[in-house]
Amino acid sequence: MSKHRIVLVHGMGSFDKDWSKEIQELIKSNYTKVKSEYATEFDKRFKFVEVNYNSFFEERREQWKNQNEELKAALTLGGISSSLLDKITSLSDKLTSDKFYATHALDVVLYRYIKQLSEQVRTYLAEEFIKAAKFRGPWSIIAHSLGTSVTHDTLHALFTHQIKHKTLDRHFRPTNVWMLANVSRVVSDDVDVYKSVVKPTFDPSNGVVSEYFNAQHPFDPFPNVKAFHSNNGEATHWRNQVGNRYQHILLPKSDVTELNVHGFSHYLKSPLVTRALILSIGGAAAIDDEKMKIYEKNYQNKTVTATTNKVKEKFEEISLGSPSTIEAFISTTSEFRKWIIG
Amino acid sequence: MNNGDYAKYLAYVLATAILLIANTANAACTNKEDTFDNARESEPVSDIISTFTANGCYGEDQDNNPHTKKILELLSYDKSEKTPEELEALFLAVESDIQSELRKYTQGKSTESKFQETKDAWAAYEKAFNTIAIRKSGESQYWLVQQPNLSAFAYPKFEGRAFLEQMCPTLDISSNCSNAIAETVQLIRAFNLLATITETSLLPNAITHLNDTKLRLQQWDDYFNKAEPLWFTELGLNSILEMKGTRFDDNGNLIGFRDVPDKQHLFLHPTTALQYFEEEDSDSNFKPAILLDLYGINFLDWNKTTRRLDGSMGASLTISYSNHEDSDDYGWGIRIFNNKNWSFGITKHSERVGIFLSIGVVEQISDWKKKVSEWETEQESWKEELGIK
Known about the structure:
The complex is a heterodimer of chains A (342) and B (389). Chain A has helices at residues 21-34, 42-45, 54-77, 83-95, 100-113, 115-133, 146-160, 184-187, 221-224, 235-242, 264-269, 271-282, 289-300, 304-318, 326-341, and strands at 4-9, 46-50, 139-144, 176-180, 211-216, 246-250. By secondary structure, chain A is an alpha/beta fold. In chain A, helix 3 (54-77) packs antiparallel against helix 4 and helix 5 crosses helix 6. Chain A starts with a strand and ends with a helix. By secondary structure, chain B is of the alpha+beta class. Chain B has eleven helices and six strands. A six-stranded antiparallel β-barrel of chain B has the order 1-2-3-4-5-6.
């Protein structure tokens, strides 16, 4: 059997080649930390596939930047001034800057509203998906943020596209799809995400995913705009229809280890996500319960709440009341330094 | 050992068997890459079987159990090339027979066994089998032989039959239980073979879609890099006008991929050119100009055979800005453009008529004075040599 392909799909922002190395190392590390004696070594069983659709957005930004430079040069050379042209070049300057709205928010705008670009991105992703699917064995997708919308739209297009009245056989469908910080409900507009073919099912006639996992952090603002799993959403019914083949993982509020709760790696570090992910790709007996408990404990020690509590405890320990004497003050300084630096 | 533990061990054994069989299979069976890329559009079933036999994808002939042999027999008889539709029908028929037979066999074993543990083992397998094999029910057109998700296991102490016997309850050692386990392994082998054949038969379908996808990606590359380069606002306009989508399902969802458009709309499209007015007292009559297409249309010529962009041609209503003596800076006119980099046109500035020719990027424009000067110097040099001056 060929290795289980895991396709990693990024979200909004700037991504170069090998952007997923950190993510790959994290998943592999988590698997190794908690795997049972019955689970195969990670590298023997799995292989990552990195996709980078950001390059298409960068090409367009680069093109507009170059066009802008040409235009400005011509304006200068020709001694021409025009307020309208100034507005055009000014807009282009903004779109091609390195500011957040240009490198992150613009990706969402480009994908949502510029259909030529979204089609190009979906076509690219479709090619990567088929190449991952062609090997004998299961294959999975882990998508984050904007990548959840791109993944959803691509899967739907890929498995409904007809060539001489034949669609791609659903034998090649992914075994499981992981949507972290799922924004597909608000970003995807060509397809109703609840009524598309991208849903978990026993019967391939009804859907193109065997298992669908949706993970969301309650403090992550992006998926919260229009949560994929909500009381108003039909995904809540999927559980009744397919049982564990659909899982919504709402991370606890206390699962915060860094400010960027939206981050790809932040989601993957969460014990809830780690456990469910490894079980889904590794199998029912892939996890050693004791090792998982250790992982959870170590994680909890790194959360913001735990860190705050630690700081508080240490404060109470080294605090000697009001350091009204210089000796007490120096002692406090020394204790604190020892604790922080070691 | 209670029934729960027994079922658990059975699950381990099944998974181990799958892994063992998979890992000992020839590389040609596991490395699908070559098979995929070299797969023919239609391949006789007998060729598929021959390839598997030659590569030992399911062991030596003497290892073949009755179930595997039955599958091979059913599939090998026909040596003629079949259309994809006929292939599909053949596989559906074989799968239907085999699955039905396997299911009956499993049920039979479950009822006829003398020992309760063995009956339970077969019952557990039957349950797993029903989960593994997709049901063809109702209007479903899909038969899908799925493998159970048990392949996470790699029991390190697998040692053939001895191991199998260890998994059986002490009452049933080396008798029906171990035979049951061994037969289970054989059934899984047959199952795997069926899955492999199914996948192989579906490869042409995947290849077709992959090739189509690659071509579409090239088309988009042509659109963005060979056709007229559109600015952000223009892309938005074209997105509304040319990317509506034509195929929808019953839920109103767009289905499939959108095709590349066959034309582009230009709107407030700035571009550069060299504009010519016949003027006196000027070191050159060509001057850089900015053109602003108020509205234009560019027709894209997609080759019907290759589906690639052969070229494009269009026209626009344009305003030009340039700094000429004895003329208004602003004029209006028409621009004709061809294949992205080449355009010409005519504009009227008050009473004067100018023509323009686009010759490319800002380097061309910024170097044009230097080039003209170099050319004039070269001209003087020739004249001197020829004694014309």
